[in-house]
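pinging the channel bc i need a second pair of eyes. not urgent but kinda urgent?? the chain im working w is below, pasted from the shared doc
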Amino acid sequence: MFSRTLIATLATLLFASVPATAEQGKKPAPQIDAARSGPYLGITGLVAFENGGTNILHLNDTPSNYMADVTGGLEIYGGVNFSTYAAVELYGDWLEDLTDLSFGVMLKARYPIDRYAPYLGFGAGLNWVDGRKSLGTRWGGVVIFTGGCDFYITDNIAIDVEANYRKGTGTNLGINYITTGAGIKYLF
């Protein structure tokens, strides 16, 4: 249900963001600047694929019963576009079936083009896992590589689409997964 609501909301926002065609004698719509600096907050719905996406389907108890290593979650983040081409971000996310919480900091390199701002990033933080596949409860490190694109609907609102690769370190060395997500960002 959550994914259907998220898709419907994003489709509505995308449709509403299509600029109207300027009629004769009317002033054209103002250009949106994706290159501006400043603080922002955002929320993203996540879909995670365990084991780096290499084990999407695996054999469960019987040959006729397959289980997908896929789960959903949520990410909340805030950051600052401190120049046209760079941003720093603090994030926190939760993944349901992994009972996983992550907190950290990320650096992003952006390349704004009109309404779009594609980016690549690298981050590190802490990861807490509770009872995943008999590993027990523990804290560990996590390294994140990300890529995505912000689509600016207005000067203050953007739709964010991203993909991340997360790799556990230290006590969480065996925990790695890919997340994909879509959400909304507000720039102040």
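so Residues 36-187 form a domain with the Porin fold (CATH 2.40.160.20). and Helices lie at 2-16. — does that match what u expected or am i reading it wrong
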